[in-house]
Here is the input.
Amino acid sequence: MRIRRFAKVLAAFLAGVMLVHLLYACSPRSQAAEKTKLTITTVNNGDMVVMQGLSRKKEYIQLVAKENGWVAVPPGTRTSTYQNPNYQKAAPFAEIVLGAIQSADVTRPSAQPTPYKGVHV
Here is the structure.
């Protein structure tokens, strides 16, 4: 029961994060000189490590889809999700999100220079 509740919260959080990024990227102000700082932090505790492992499993994706509908499946966890006709029908934003993930420049993960390379979802 706790895993299902946590799965719902995690799915909503990830969808919200992706939506914020998508809306900002599509906004006319995204290229403006005005700077916006977005900081997202996570707690790297045992429960979070377990959920990260679960969220990438096909069985977890199927469970979320069954319990909450395909639109609630966490974005960016499995490439096969984007090829699923049920997900494509329920999540009209899927093609845009997949395109954003595939076009991410891992050598420049931020608008400003960083001492690291790569992205984390």
User: Anything to note?
Assistant: The CA atoms of residues 35 and 112 lie 10 Å apart.
